[in-house]
Specification:
The complex is a heterodimer of chains A (222) and B (194).
Chain A (H helix, E strand, L loop, with lengths): L1 H7 L2 H12 L10 H6 L4 H24 L9 H23 L1 H7 L10 H11 L4 H31 L1 E2 L2 E2 L14 H19 L7 H12 L1
Antiparallel strand pairs in A: 1-2
Helix pairs in contact in A: 2-8, 4-5, 4-7, 4-8, 5-6, 5-7, 7-8
Chain B lengths: L1 H13 L10 H6 L4 H33 L5 H23 L1 H7 L3 H4 L3 H12 L4 H32 L9 H16 L8
Helix pairs in contact in B: 1-8, 3-4, 3-7, 3-8, 4-5, 4-7, 7-8, 8-9
Chain lengths: 222, 194
C-alpha cells in the first residue's frame, strides 16, 4: 500500500493522470479533432494514427525540451514546425514502407499530423518550460489519452458501419450496417457523445473549453 | 474551363474541406462563437489558402520535382505557409491597416490550420495543374468560409434560446451542429465529381 502511495504522489503519476483523463486533449481541450474524426472509420486506422501521434509528440517534446534554452521566443512556432515535420516525414516513410495499405487509407492525414494542434500545444505549454524527463512523460500521457479516444471512436464506428472489428466479422447475420457512421456525420455525432459523456463524468462546470480561452487571447492580441 | 469550374464547385459543395474532409476543426470549434469573428477568420483563410496553394504548386513542380526531393515536401510546404502568413501579416499591417485590424489577429492562428496544409497536400496527391490548383484552393477556402459562417450563425441563435445539457456545452454541441451540417452536405453528393 505504501508503495502505491509513493507512486501516486509523484509528479510523473500526476502528469499521466492529467494527460490521459483529467485534461485529455480531445475531450477537454478539443485539440487534434481533425485526424481524430477523419481517419477513425476503422479500428486499424485509429490504432495507427494514435500510435503515430504518440510517437511524434514524444520525440518532438523531447527535442523541444532539449534545445529549449536556445529557442528564440519569437521564432518558437517555426522551430516546433520544423522539428515536428521532420519526425512526421519519418513516420510517413515508415507507414509507406511497412504498412502500405494503412498508408493508403490514411492518405494525406499522416502528413497532417504536422498541424495537429495537440503536438504544438504540448510543445508550447509544457516542453518549452520543463526538463526533458517530465516533458517526455507529459507527451506520452497526452499521446496515450489521444490514442485511447481514437480506439473508442474507431472501434464503435467500425462495428456499426462495417460490422467488423479489425476486419473480423463480429455481428450476427442480418445486421444492417450504418454506412453513415463511416462518413463525416457519424464521426461528429459519436465524438460529441463521447465528449459529453466524459465531461459529465468529470463534472465539468459550464466551461466553454478552448472557445472562451481562444477569444480571450484574441481579445488581448487585438 | 469546365474542368476548373467543376473543381471549384466540388471543393465548395461535395468535397467541402470542413464538412467532408474534416479539416480545420480547431478554428471551426474554437472561434465560431459569433458570426463576425467567424467571417473574419474565414476570409483570412480564403486569402491564405489561395496564396499558399499556388506558391506551393510552383515550389513543388519547379524546384522539388526536378531536384528529386519530393520527400521533403512536407517540411517545405509548412515553412512556405508559415513564411507567407508572416509576410501577409506584415504587408497588411504596413499598407492596408484597415484589413489588418479586421482580421490580422487570425493570421498567426492560420499557420496551424490543417485546412491550409491539407489543400497543398491534396493538390499534390491529385496532380493538379496551376489553374486547377488555384481554383481548388479558392473553392476549398470558400467552402470553409461557408461552413464557418453556418456554424457561427447557428451558435449565435442557439446561445439566445436553447437549453443545452451541461456536458454538451461548448465543443460538444458544435460537433452536433457540424454533424447535422455534414449530413446536409451529403445531399450534394453526385452533383459534381472531381
Amino acid at each position: 500500500m505504501s508503495a502505491w502511495y509513493r507512486l501516486v504522489y509523484t509528479r510523473p503519476y500526476a502528469l499521466m493522470k492529467d494527460g490521459v483523463w483529467k485534461k485529455n486533449s480531445v475531450t477537454s481541450a478539443t485539440l487534434g479533432i481533425c485526424s481524430a474524426l477523419a481517419v477513425t472509420n476503422k479500428l486499424e486506422n485509429g490504432i495507427a494514427m494514435g500510435l503515430a501521434v504518440t510517437f511524434v509528440v514524444m520525440v518532438a517534446c523531447l527535442a523541444t525540451s532539449v534545445i529549449r534554452a536556445f529557442i528564440p521566443l519569437r521564432l518558437r512556432m517555426i522551430t516546433y514546425m520544423i522539428i515536428i515535420s521532420t519526425f512526421v516525414i519519418g513516420v510517413d516513410l515508415f507507414f509507406k514502407g511497412y504498412f502500405p495499405s494503412i498508408s493508403r487509407a490514411l492518405g494525406p492525414y499522416v502528413a497532417l499530423i504536422i498541424t495537429n494542434c495537440l503536438i504544438m500545444g504540448r510543445a508550447e505549454a509544457f516542453a518549452l518550460k520543463n526538463p526533458v524527463k517530465f516533458s517526455v512523460i507529459d507527451a506520452l500521457s497526452h499521446g496515450l489519452g489521444y490514442t485511447f479516444v481514437l480506439l473508442v471512436l474507431s472501434g464503435i464506428r467500425e462495428v456499426l458501419a462495417f460490422g467488423t472489428l479489425l476486419n473480423v466479422r463480429v455481428v450476427w447475420a442480418g445486421w444492417t450496417t450504418w454506412m453513415v457512421m463511416a462518413m463525416a456525420p457519424g464521426g461528429f455525432f459519436l465524438l460529441a457523445i463521447i465528449v459529453s459523456v466524459v465531461r459529465t463524468l468529470q463534472g465539468v462546470q459550464a466551461d466553454d473549453g478552448p472557445t472562451a480561452k481562444t477569444e480571450e487571447i484574441m481579445a488581448k492580441a487585438a | 474551363m469546365g474542368n476548373t469550374m467543376n473543381i471549384f464547385l466540388a471543393a465548395v459543395l461535395t468535397h467541402n474541406i470542413a464538412l467532408v474532409y474534416i479539416l480545420g476543426m480547431c478554428p471551426t470549434i474554437g472561434v465560431s462563437r459569433n458570426l463576425k469573428t467567424a467571417t473574419g477568420m474565414g476570409v483570412a483563410v480564403v486569402f491564405v489558402v489561395t496564396l499558399t496553394s499556388t506558391i506551393n504548386w510552383f515550389i513543388y513542380n519547379l524546384v522539388l520535382v526536378p531536384a528529386g526531393a519530393e520527400i521533403v515536401s512536407l517540411l517545405v510546404f509548412i515553412i512556405t505557409i508559415a513564411a507567407s502568413v508572416q509576410l501577409l501579416e506584415m504587408l497588411l499591417e504596413k499598407f492596408v491597416p484597415y484589413l489588418h485590424n479586421a482580421f490580422g489577429v487570425f493570421l498567426p492562428l492560420i499557420t496551424v490550420n490543417c485546412a491550409v496544409l491539407g489543400v497543398s497536400l491534396l493538390m499534390v496527391l491529385r496532380d493538379y495543374g496551376l489553374v486547377q490548383t488555384a481554383f481548388f484552393g479558392l473553392g476549398s477556402a470558400a467552402g470553409f468560409l461557408l461552413a464557418m459562417m453556418l456554424v457561427a450563425g447557428m451558435r449565435e441563435k442557439m446561445d439566445l434560446t436553447s437549453d443545452v445539457p451541461r456536458g454538451l456545452q461548448g465543443p460538444g454541441i458544435v460537433m452536433i451542429i457540424l454533424g447535422i451540417l455534414a449530413l446536409g452536405f451529403m445531399a450534394f453528393q453526385g452533383m459534381v465529381d472531381l
